[in-house]
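Help!! Second protein's tokens look totally different from the first
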Amino acid sequence: MLATIRHQHPFFPVFNDYFGESLFNDSDWTSTPAVNVAEDKEGFRIEVAAPGLNKEDFRINIEKQVLEISSEKESKKESDSKNETYYRKEFVYASFKRTFSLPEYADTDNITASYKDGVLYVNVPKKDEAKEKPARVISIA
């Protein structure tokens, strides 16, 4: 089974132990995108809802059976006119990091990713020895 590693900030375990898990729930405190994780006989599929980003905005790393998906993007509100003076200009910085602990039978050498319609798809295949084998008849000698 694929496990999500939650709360990457070093103080989260301390706060969670004292106040309980709900104080720093991902959906309440951070702007972490929603994630779906599915498994079939061939492998795992991770779907990250991240509209407004480009595939170049993502970084996907794998180290010691831990898959990390992150993004950091600076959005600028810009004007069409080159001859105007700004009295106020706002910059928006958005970033996130999600990490997943992969099982030993994940084939980390063949992970693939694609981005379409605001969703990042990461496919993690299983090693051949972990895939289900079809039923077969064994002959008696």
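Here's the second one for comparison:
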Amino acid sequence: MVKNRKIIYVAPVLIILAILLWWALKPAPVAVETAGATRGAMQVSIDADGKTRIHDRFVLAAPVSGRMRRIDLHRGDQVNQGDQITVIEPLPVQPLDPRQFAEATAKVSASQSILKEALALVERVRTECDQARRERLRAEKLLESGDVSKQEFERARNAENSCRRELEAAQFKSSAAASEVEMAKSALIQFQQQQKSTSSSPVPVKSPLKGTVLKLIEESERVVMAGTPLLELSNPSHLEIVIDVLSTDAVRILPGMAALLENWGGDHPLRASVRMVEPSAFTKVSALGVEEQRVNVIADFTEGSGPLGDGYRIEARIITWHADSVLQIPTSALFRKGEAWSVFIVENGKISNREIEIGHRNSSVVEVLKGMDEGAQVVLHPTNQLTNGMNVRRR
């Protein structure tokens, strides 16, 4: 009886001690950071630096050799077509060289050929613009009936806008080519007059188009040779964006893709559309001293360029893919297990390893195709110490 009584008293104490010992030796739950699998919009982009550039420049050159009078213009001044820029007083006439006369005649012929080519380009681009306009109207009607997506309609609208800008550029080039013809003819007339007279009258240099002075190459009065660049003219409101990307990224970029321009100095991103990917690459040395093959991507503003000017720096995000509703998780939750992608799922205070199939990904999130449901909690930045079935608590 005494022995049984001792067992009755000692057994509970031993059980309590065993429980306390188990509790003391029980591993504490590991603190982990988690995030939920959510469904929402997602986009994949190629990020690169770029700069703005005026689409068309025209360099006004001296038509004859002589003493040029000072140009009374400054950068940013507006000039109209036919405005007199300066006057060149030809140098004393020397006996006419037949070779020079032949060169002047050939220059007239070449400039006329360039003008014909420019006029043909205007007609071709005008025809393309008419087609782009019809496609935009057709897409607009199909959008109302729901037979075409908004993305396809925006692509047709951007194509029409880009074509309109190309038409303006082609007309600009034809106007410049016509001016070149007139200047070449005036130089030829000057040569012809030299055969009849030993003196020449001053030659006015006029603006071939309406535009803005971008750069004064020769400002002060001095003697210039025929063909010497005097100033640059252009329309500063017709800007384009030049974005240099790695050649491995350039193969994924197509005309018509949307682009967002950020960190240009304003409080909102500007929208643009890719017009073309240049067919040739160039070598550029990175900040780390590594040679890279890069390609220029040319884009046009779709909603105005704001206060930007020529040569302004921007940061571009060219959107190569986007969707309105996809299941996604942070990229930092992924890790490799063999050849498959895996994540740790937190369920009832324990973690379990799960293989998933992923789709598109960007720098922050990844698309989940299979292996996970919306709302699942995944472990971010998993370490090698985590194992399947381990107790965890959310940080």
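Reply: Different proteins will give different token patterns, so don't panic. Residues 83 and 206 are 5 Å apart (CA to CA).
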